Amino acid sequence: MSLRDRQRAETRLQVQTHAIRLFTDVGYDATTVADVAAAAGVSAMTVYRHFPTKEDLVLYDEYDPVTASAVAAAPPGPLPARIGHALSETAAHGSSSEKAFLLARLRLMISVPALRARHLDSQYATADAIVGALDCSPEEEFRVRATAMACLGAAHVALIRWAETDGEADLAGLIREALTSVFGDSD
Question: What is the DSSP annotation of the chain?
Answer without folding.
Answer: --HHHHHHHHHHHHHHHHHHHHHHHT-TTT--HHHHHHHHTS-HHHHHHH-SSTTHHHH--SHHHHHHHHHHHSPSS-HHHHHHHHHHHHHHT--HHHHHHHHHHHHHHHH-HHHHHHHHHHHHHHHHHHHHHHT--HHHHHHHHHHHHHHHHHHHHHHHHHHHTTT-S-HHHHHHHHHHHHH----
